[in-house]
C-alpha cells in the first residue's frame, strides 16, 4: 500500500523503466496498487518489463463482491502477472483453499500467478518442510501440468522478511529449500516439469545479498519488497542480476 500519491508512484516507475532499458538479460515485473495498473501497463512493452497485480479475487463477476477485483479485470487493463498467497494476505486470514481458487482463476484468465509459499519459523524437527509441502500441494489442486508453464513459485519464508528483523536466509539453506520445492512439484507432476519451473526468493533482499541469493541459493529470481520503493536500490539489484550469465 505504497507510495501514497500517483506523483511519487509515477516517478519511481519512470526511474525503474529507464534503468531497465539499460539491461540485457534481466526480467522485471512491477506490481503496483490496483490504482496504477492500467496507466503503467500502457507504458511497458517487450517481454522483459511487465506489470502485475498484488492480489486478485477468485470469482470472475458478481454483485455480491464489493471491493474485489477479478482476474479478467486485471488482465483487461494490461497486467500479465499477479501475486497470489502473499504472506501478508495470509496473515489477514487467506486460506490455502482461497489461494487455490485464485490460482485457478488467474490461469484461466491468462495471467501468470506468482504463488507465494513459506513457513513462519523453522524448527529443529524440520516440521516446516511438511508445512511448505502442504502449502504447495493445496495451491496446485486442479492445476494441470500445462498450467505450470505459466506459474512461478516464490519461496517467501515469513521469518526472513525485513519486518521480522532476522535478516535474509543463508544461501545454502535457500538452495535446499528450492530443491525441496522442486521435489514436491516433481512428486505431483514429473521431474521435467519441476526442473523447468521458475522458483524465486523473497525476504530481506538487498544489494549486499542479491548475488549470493542468486548464485549460491540458485534462485531463478527475487520477489523484492521494501527495496522496490527505492528506485536507486532497485536499480542496483537489477544491475547486479543482469551481470549474471
Topology:
Blueprint: H1 6-20, E1 28-30, H2 34-41, E2 49-53, H3 71-76, E3 81-84, H4 87-91, H5 96-109, E4 112-117, H6 128-139, E5 152-155, H7 171-188, H8 191-196, E6 198-201, H9 210-215, H10 231-242
Helix pairs in contact: 1-10, 6-7
How would you characterize this protein structure?
- The protein is an alpha/beta fold and 245 residues long.
- It has a single domain (6-242), classed as Alpha-Beta Barrel (TIM Barrel).
- The chain is 42% helix and 11% strand.
- It has helices spanning 6-20, 34-41, 71-76, 87-91, 96-109, 128-139, 171-188, 191-196, 210-215, 231-242, and strands spanning 28-30, 49-53, 81-84, 112-117, 152-155, 198-201.
- A 6-stranded parallel β-sheet has the order 1-2-3-4-5-6.
- Helix 2 (34-41) links the parallel strand 1 (28-30) and strand 2.
Amino acid at each position: 500500500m505504497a507510495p501514497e500519491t500517483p506523483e511519487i508512484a509515477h516517478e519511481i516507475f519512470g526511474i525503474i523503466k529507464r534503468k531497465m532499458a539499460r539491461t540485457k538479460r534481466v526480467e522485471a515485473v512491477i506490481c503496483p496498487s490496483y490504482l496504477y495498473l492500467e496507466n503503467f501497463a500502457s507504458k511497458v512493452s517487450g517481454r522483459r518489463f511487465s506489470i502485475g497485480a498484488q492480489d486478485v479475487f477468485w470469482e470472475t463477476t458478481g454483485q455480491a463482491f464489493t471491493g474485489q477485483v477479478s482476474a479478467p479485470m486485471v488482465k483487461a487493463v494490461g497486467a500479465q502477472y499477479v501475486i497470489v498467497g502473499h504472506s501478508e494476505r495470509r496473515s489477514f486470514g487467506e486460506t490455502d483453499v482461497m489461494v487455490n481458487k485464485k490460482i485457478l482463476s488467474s490461469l484461466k484468465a491468462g495471467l501468470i500467478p506468482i504463488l507465494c509459499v513459506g513457513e513462519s519459523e523453522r524448527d529443529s524437527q524440520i516440521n516446516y518442510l511438511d508445512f511448505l509441502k502442504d502449502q504447495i500441494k493445496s495451491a496446485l489442486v486442479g492445476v494441470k501440468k500445462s498450467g505450470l508453464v505459466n506459474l512461478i513459485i516464490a519461496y517467501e519464508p515469513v521469518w526472513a522478511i525485513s519486518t521480522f528483523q532476522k535478516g535474509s536466509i543463508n544461501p545454502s539453506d535457500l538452495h535446499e529449500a528450492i530443491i525441496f520445492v522442486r521435489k514436491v512439484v516433481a512428486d505431483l507432476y514429473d521431474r521435467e516439469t519441476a526442473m523447468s519451473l521458475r522458483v524465486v526468493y523473497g525476504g530481506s533482499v538487498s544489494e549486499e545479498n542479491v548475488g549470493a541469493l542468486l548464485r549460491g541459493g540458485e534462485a531463478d529470481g527475487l520477489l523484492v519488497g521494501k527495496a522496490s520503493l527505492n528506485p536507486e536500490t532497485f536499480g542496483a539489484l537489477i544491475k547486479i542480476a543482469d551481470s549474471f550469465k
